[in-house]
Amino acid sequence: MVLALAALAASTGDPRSRLPVLFAVAAAIAAIFVVQYFAWTRPGMPAVTGVVGRYFRPLAMAAALALPSFAHAAAARRKVAYAALANLTFITYSIMLHHITLSFCVS
User: Where are the alpha helices (DSSP H) in the chain?
Assistant: First the structure.
């Protein structure tokens, strides 16, 4: 849901160059693999270990800046921002409480 809202919010406004954004995201992905290669991978292993999908979530939101702009999306941007704030606040707290309950209260 966060990625969809970030993509919608990023697709409003004036057209922009997509190439620098895609290059920055690709460079960050390569850097993650290089760091994990040196930090976690034993020599001779066939794959890089230690890479977790959560490392790519901020990059996916940044990649939304490379989406094309929509002509009439600027009017909906404020409504989407308010809806996202309200929904994500509720979802974050409910998921956090559920996680704490399962992690620390269940034997």
Answer: 2-10, 19-40, 57-63, 77-100
Question: What six digits make up the tokens of 93?
Answer: 């707290």
Domain spans of the chain, in order of start: 2-105
Let me know: does 107 contact 35? Beta carbons within 8 Å: no
pLDDT tens, residue by residue, 58-75:
888 777 777 766 666 666
Residue found under tokens 């959560």: 54
Which two three-digit tokens encode residue 46?
Answer: 């066939």
Within 10 Å of residue 25's Cβ, how many Cβ atoms?
20
Indicate the pTM of the whole model: 0.55
User: For residues 6 and 61, is the Cβ–Cβ distance under 8 A?
Assistant: yes
Question: Cα 27 to the chain's mean position, in Å?
Answer: 15
Q: Note whether 32 and 62 are within 8 A (CB).
A: no
